[in-house]
Amino acid sequence: MHRALKGLRMTEKAGETATDAKGEGEMPKTRRAKGMAELDAGELAILQAYERGELVSVATPEEIARVRAAARATAVKDKRVNIRLSSGDLADIQARALQEGMPYQTLIASVLHKYVSGRLVERPVRGRRAG
C-alpha cells in the first residue's frame, strides 16, 4: 500500500455489493476512510486498482520534479497564528473540511493562501445588490 494511504482506516458498509470495473466478481458497494465521504463503486474500483499496483503514472520526471518543488515551497509552515472565530463559523468550517476530506486547519490555511495569492475570487450573492 502507498505510504500516503497507510494512515487511512477503511470501512465497508456491511451487506452491500456491486460489480467491479471489469464486470467480474463482487466488491463492497461503498468504502470510506474514517472521517471522509463514502466512495461510490467507480471510486472504489479505482482505489482497489491503485492498492493492487495496477495504475501507472503518466507524469514525466520533469513534471514530478516541478510538482515536488512546488509542494516543498508551499508546505513550509513556520509560523503559528491564533485567531478567534464564532462557534458557528468554526462549526461550518469543520463541516466543510469534513466534506473535503481534510483537517479544518488545513482548509483555513488553504483559503488564506488562495486569498493572498489572488486565486480566491468573490462571487456575487444572488438577490443582493452591490452597495
Would you kindly provide a brief summary of this structure?
This protein has helices at 41-51, 61-75, 87-100, 104-116, and strands spanning 10-12, 17-19, 26-28, 31-33. It is mainly alpha-helical and 131 residues long. The chain folds into two domains: 3-51, no CATH class; 61-116, no CATH class.
Describe this structure in words.
The protein is 40% helix and 9% strand. With 131 residues, the chain is mainly alpha-helical. The protein has two domains: 3-51, no CATH class; 61-116, no CATH class. It has a two-stranded antiparallel ribbon. The protein has a two-stranded antiparallel sheet with strand order 2-3. A hairpin with a 6-residue loop joins β2 (17-19) and β3 (26-28). The protein starts with 9 loop residues before the first strand and ends in a 15-residue tail after the last helix. The model is unreliable at 1-21 (pLDDT under 50).
Any key phrases for this structure?
131 residues, mainly alpha, two-stranded antiparallel ribbon, 4 helices, disordered N terminus
Radius of gyration: 20 Å
Number of domains: 2
Total of helices: 4
> What's the pLDDT, averaged over the residues?
76
Number of strands: 4
Percentage beta strand: 5-15%
Strand order of the largest sheet: 1-4
Q: How would the global form be characterised?
A: extended
The assigned structural class equals mainly alpha
Low-confidence stretches: 1-21
SSE string, helix = H, strand = E? EEEEHHHH
Instruction: Tell me the distance between the termini.
Output: 54 Å
Helix % is: 40-55%
Instruction: Describe the largest sheet.
Output: 2 strands, antiparallel
